Amino acid sequence: xxxxxxxxxxxxxxxxxxxxxxxxxxxxxxxxxxxxxxxxxxxxxxxxxxxxxxxxxxxxxxxxxxxxxxxxxxxxxxxxxxxxxxxxxxxxxxxxxxxxxxxxxxxxxxxxxxxxxxxxxxxxxxxxxxxxxxxxxxxxxxxxxxxxxxxxxxxxxxxxxxxxxxxxxxxxxxxxxxxxxxxxxxxxxxxxxxxxxxxxxxxxxxxxxxxxxxxx
Length: 216
Description:
Helices cover 32% and strands 29% of the residues. The protein is of the alpha/beta class. It has two domains: 9-116, GMP Synthetase, Chain A, domain 3; 124-214, 2-Layer Sandwich (Ribosomal protein S3 C-terminal domain), CATH 3.30.1140.
């Protein structure tokens, strides 16, 4: 069961909480869900276009959205300083204006805040993005996975599992390769496990990266 269900949804209410927090009537639920996805995509696109270093690395761990009647609060958790931090106040204001132009929020204000994570390599999204950049640069997939595990050894994580699926190294037949270090109890609900699924487009096709991190 631990392999067949999303670990975050499996642990909601125990060790995990929702990344979006708002209430809506059943007929308006899909509209609010699509709005959240568009807000996250617009923020990521803005950072990609305006980052200071053109390495393709965003460093976004997660984006939390809280909606009220008159306010939409967005909290961006990042692992490394980027363009938004170089000119923090100005960067946030420009980002808010950019998002507000794309969405016509009726009678609602938009407030964006940024939180810098002390240990970025504890976040599966950042590790998946790192592996994706290595694969785009033609680095061996085994070397990329082992390097990602070495980065997590500097943190307080108790275990990590990395999985890559697709036409790895341009082989004609798709396959799944994975590596694990430490304990990753996927069937234990009380175990705090962070998870992410990341898609990367290469010249050979689409590869899927999944990472499980046993935090506590």
